[in-house]
Design goal:
heterodimer, A: 203 residues, seven-stranded mixed beta sheet, 6 helices, B: 219 residues, alpha/beta, six-stranded mixed beta sheet, disordered N terminus
Chain lengths: 203, 219
């Protein structure tokens, strides 16, 4: 029944849902190109696009937000990651955090406060249209996406295996693999966190 | 119109994806409970609960009831393993079950929770059992219970002691989420936020509950 419906859709020539999404992601699968974004304002007052990071070999996008305790629990780990991989003009990796929530506690003024208080060492952008979150299929905060030199997806999911007692850092392993031009051994994990508050249903 | 792949669902078999909704999800602007309210509430509740514990003991006797206690049934929060949660759902066979997955750290969950309480109030007598399961750490039991009491969540409430494994066991990335089971204990639908284009509200949950009730009425 389901197969017939799917075939009918395929025959009709318009498939709303990618035939094959990720295990935990309804939109993207490993190998998919990076969704573009443009003119997103950051907490530093500058605007950023996907192209802003084209000189970097590896791009890490992180959908996150202010209010979520899980996202907060990862802030220091992100700062450490950026120190190690993505700080300085010569680094080969760019790390970009994006908030798509429109809760008052998550909007740009609060983002600026949070970034300053925590000393964020990476661009923290606001997308009130929520488009980049949707395009990434991001459903929780924080959720991480690693794109290689060709801006193909090589990893998506959680930063590590545990919020309270992490033993495996999937994100670092993925970035190391991408720098070597490889797909990481673990290319997809289950991100855990607060649901992103998307405002409208299907479009 | 839209046919995502069937999910391998936990808690008894495959779930169907939540239906597309046309109404925009409510975007809450503020926190559900201020910490001062919570504190005030704790101070109000703690002496009363201490009294209840002191009087309970092994006997099944009802504790002496104040007028307030008579009006409001006790709110309880039981720490359980995943298998016990499964059993609790199956123990409700013959009734429709609405299971709300939440945590005290999850603001949207707390904003949605009153809808579960309302569902309980309106449908319990018609054969619908509302349950809640908290993904808080057991150390947060008091915080979670205080919220449930404030909400007057007089239905069975559970707290999973599976820590972060809970997300895997429930096959969830984020919460809130609501699972609905029919009278045979079969999972009918999983309402989750896992697909950006298929978000849910409690209006969707209630619609499904009504559909299930109607089905039973026709038999």
């Amino acid at each position: 029944m389901f197969r017939i419906a799917l075939m009918a859709l395929a025959l009709a020539g318009w498939v709303l849902v990618p035939a094959q999404a990720g295990k935990y992601n309804k939109k993207l699968k490993i190998g998919d190109p990076a969704p573009t974004f443009a003119n997103l304002e950051g907490v530093d007052g500058k605007t950023y696009s996907l192209d802003s990071f084209k000189d970097k070999e590896v791009l890490v996008l992180c959908i996150t937000c202010n209010h979520c305790p899980v996202a907060q629990a990862y802030e220091d780990r992100i700062i450490q990651f950026v120190k190690k991989y993505a700080s300085g003009p010569d680094s080969k990796v760019a790390f970009v955090a994006i908030n798509v929530n429109n809760l008052e506690a998550d909007k740009l003024p609060k983002m600026k406060e949070r970034a300053q208080a925590k000393g964020f060492n990476f661009p923290y952008l606001y997308d009130p249209s929520q488009q980049i979150g949707r395009a990434l299929g991001a459903s929780v905060t924080p959720e991480f996406f690693v794109f290689n030199k060709d801006r193909k997806l090589v990893y998506m999911g959680a930063m590590d295996d545990s919020q309270t007692n992490p033993r495996v850092n999937y994100l670092e392993a993925a970035v190391e693999a991408a720098l070597r031009g490889e797909i990481p051994q673990t290319a997809e994990t289950r991100a855990r966190g607060c649901t992103v508050k998307y405002e409208s249903a299907s479009r | 119109m839209n046919l995502p792949a069937a999910e391998a669902g936990p808690l008894f078999g495959g779930g169907r994806p939540s239906p597309p909704t046309t109404s925009p999800s409510p975007v809450a602007e503020e926190l559900a409970v201020s910490s001062s309210q919570t504190l005030a509430f704790l101070f109000a509740v703690l002496p009363a609960s201490a009294l209840l514990l002191g009087c309970g003991g092994a006997s099944r006797q009802e504790p002496p009831q104040t007028p307030a206690a008579r009006q409001e049934p006790a709110v309880d929060l039981q720490v359980v393993a995943y298998s016990q949660l499964e059993q609790a759902i199956q123990a409700q066979r013959g009734r429709i079950v609405v299971l709300d997955v939440w945590a005290s750290w999850c603001l949207p969950c707390k904003q949605e929770f009153p809808h579960l309480v309302e569902l309980h109030r309106r449908y319990a007598r018609r054969g619908v059992t509302c349950l809640s399961v908290s993904l808080d750490e057991p150390a947060q039991h008091a915080t979670a219970l205080a919220f449930l009491r404030q909400q007057k969540a007089t239905f069975p409430n559970y707290l999973l002691n599976e820590s972060e494994k809970s997300f895997d066991l429930l096959d969830l990335k984020g919460i809130p989420a609501v699972f609905v089971y029919d009278r045979r204990g079969q999972l009918v639908r999983r309402f989750t936020g896992d697909d950006p284009d298929h978000q849910f509200t409690y209006a969707d949950v209630e619609r499904l509950v009504q559909e299930l009730l109607q089905k039973e009425d026709q038999k």
